[in-house]
Amino acid sequence: xxxxxxxxxxxxxxxxxxxxxxxxxxxxxxxxxxxxxxxxxxxxxxxxxxxxxxxxxxxxxxxxxxxxxxxxxxxxxxxxxxxxxxxxxxxxxxxxxxxxxxxxxxxxxxxxxxxxxxxxxxxxxxxxxxxxxxxxxxxxxxxxxxxxxxxxxxxxxxxxxxxxxxxxxxxxxxxxxxxxxxxxxxxxxxxxxxxxxxxxxxxxxxxxxxxxxxxxxxxxxxxxxxxxxxxxxxxxxxxxxxxxxxxxxxxxxxxxxxxxxxxxxxxxxxxxxxxxxxxxxxxxxxxxxxxxxxxxxxxxxxxxxxxxxxxxxxxxxxxxxxxxxxxxxxxxxxxxxxxxxxxxxx
Length: 346
Description:
Blueprint: E1 4-10, H1 14-25, E2 32-39, H2 45-55, E3 59-64, H3 70-80, E4 85-88, E5 94-95, H4 99-110, E6 114-122, E7 141-144, E8 162-165, H5 181-193, E9 195-207, H6 226-240, H7 245-268, H8 274-291, H9 301-314, H10 320-323, H11 329-345
Parallel strand pairs: 1-2, 1-4, 2-3, 6-9
Antiparallel strand pairs: 4-8, 5-9, 6-8, 7-9
């Protein structure tokens, strides 16, 4: 059994794939398997993957004939994984040589199901070493989310700067056909674990590429309404994992903070007219409030202190009429997003 299964979804990442795979293969932890899920790439990504598979037995290629998206690819990877722990890497990113060896050792020493470190964003022309974050200590610490309310708000939702005990997440899946899928997956599992290991070191390097998953000309990301389903999924997972009422409130608070921030971007966008902002946010908030009547209510003290000003602003956009509207609310919201973005395209 490999110690760690590294799952890499791949869709048209040929320019970055060699560097990504080399960084994982050069890991000081040798007992790994690298599961590359080719999500119907149309460039020469598959050719690159096959060449690595031929030269290193640790690389296994899962080639799919249709494109389903990163969540689906990660789920497929997990279904094939044989490792004691699971790690995720995006196909245009890099990992440090010591990441998996150190994280595995810490997981075994502390006997906790999740080890997490830190990540750094970089662009192609940048030297990674020039921007590395400095930490006060090199000693791992234990985060107890049940005792330190604020710590969940300091934790990244990304899945790639962490490793997860395989048995601990064997019943977990990413919500497919959505973006922001990490949010539901990560926060519900962190609170299920209760305690996790934090490594004070930057081990994951997130590449900023010019190709975005969405149209960069859009004033409003059409996928913003995915957040409603992500919110539902996270709460469903919280119930599935039998989180306590306190943990559920922490989960809600962390989710809401992420989502408030994304809604705030619409308010701050001066290219969107006041009328369009009012209309769109009224629809989006109606969708959230139908999911959870407490979406615009702070429950725990830290949540209240963190979001007080934002909540006061967002509450101005509540439209009671929409709360009684049952049908086609999501479709109507998408129409309004398309109308706003069409002004840019036009």
